[in-house]
Amino acid sequence: MDSFEVAAALFRVLETGDAALARRVVAAGNHNREAAVSPAACSIPGPAGTLASGAWMRSAFSELRFPVTDSAAKDDKVWLLLRMRGTHTGPFVRFRNGKLDQAIPPTGREIDFEQLHVVTVRDGEVVRHEALRDDLTMLGQLGVFPPSPSVMGRVVTWRVTGRAKKAADEVTALSAAAAASFTKN
User: Fold this and answer.
1) The domain 3-184 is classified under which CATH number: 3.40.190.10, 3.30.1330.60, 3.10.450.50, 3.40.50.740?
2) Is the pTM of this model over 0.85?
3) Which of 54, 97, 119, 140 has the fewest CB atoms within 10 Å of its CB?
């Protein structure tokens, strides 16, 4: 695989949870800078953390896909302009410093927004990932920003009733299980 194919394969891993592909294209020491808003297992270096990240995102967005619309490369850097698409069918839980920040209950809404990813590829493997995402557009598509009364009412209800914490615990366990399943193989 050339550098573009390796970088694009990272997103196929996120879409599918394909552990064999993760093993082929993600370096053991891969660092995902974007894991800061994810469950803790997503910060694990290498394929295990990548698989945890994919499990976290797929738990919130069914039919998750990342079609690449443009790309460029220089030295060991590959820039991918892509779209994140899916349907919000599970809670989308964001974390800050390892703790629940926000849980958005499923809305059934479609997301489709642009992202720019910088993927460092060395010796045929992804060693670093960074992104510039249009999260405001995604939150707008989910009805969170600007706040729609119905979605915000559900977000507040989830927080008050403990459903947000339960969703955070569940997605944390799910992502940890995805990481652990890789490390056992």
Assistant:
1) 3.10.450.50
2) yes
3) 97
